Amino acid sequence: MISEFSKDNFDKYIKLLKSIGALSRLFSKNTTPYLNYRISENIFCKSFNAVNVSRSDIALDAKIKNTGYGIKTFISEREMSLEKIAEFNNKRPEYMKHEEKPDKLINEIANLRNERLKFAKNILEVDDIIYHYITREKNAFNVVEDSMIPINYDKIEINKSDEKSIHFNDNKNDYSFVFSKSTLYKRFYTINPVKINIDIMEDPFEIIKKLYYNHSNFIDKKINYQSVYLPLYSHRGGFNVPKKSGLNQWNAGGRSRHPREVYIRIPKWIHRKFPSFFPNRNKSFKLILPSGKNLNAKVCQQDKKALMSNPNKALGEWLLGKVLNMNEKELVTYEMLMRKGVDCVLITKEDNNNFHIDFKSIGAFELFKQKYNK
Are 71 and 48 in contact (CB under 8 A)? Predict the structure, then answer.
């Protein structure tokens, strides 16, 4: 699969990895080169002109045409390594009902994992998904790709089960689920990799200093994009998605509504704390989706409480139809969002005409609210 990249792009990728690896002494004296996972994502996207979707809390980090990529990096001195691929802490009460029945418990975990893979594919509108990973060993990086496939329920076989974890396979991949962290691990193999030898500089600090003072005019004006989190739920009556507003606005009374009419609620305190973040009421702007496509959007209703699309159905056709894969007139519930691992969105502002929307993990809005709603 790596051969599908153009030679020029892949050569650029190797050079950037070599350059970053050479600076490893900035972080450690280890002979294993250092590579932060965010840096690996950024290098990948820069080299292959990929869409960086790492802002979204989903199973994928980048998109190239019709393919989504999950990008990983980890130390591996051997040909195999067990690495984290998902966490299900918010679903612990549900799967622990099967604590005494490992087969049922693992089926539930497999179902959750597969739902999240499908959710990520729907968000990015891709057909294929791939693991692209960089393993790190003494003075070298190894680049490997492998298919990112759902867990096959029918082929699950439990190899070992105790009070701490369950090890299982599905005739394609080996997995381990650890109870204490509600974390699913997968075994990754470093077979037939593209090996990149790394020459680690003894004193990268001197190089950085010279670069800065000899080329101080290379620093561009810093761009600070402001972001706010918006909930996809309400607190009234406990965490829930209201049946006649928000994502279920199509179900409201009064006039006849399109079955995909929805809006995303903007809490009043957001406008109070960030008064100039959103444009004026009913002023159109571009809402850029994780896939790279965009919608025509605006802030509507009294007190600017609703983020909507124009036409009204466009946001719902994307969010309900393509992303959540729901039938028309099917009610969204908080439980549905929990199974996907998200319950809010991040809105990032480039300027008054361009905003990005990304899905965020459960609890992210509450942390944002705790920090800013004072």
Answer: no
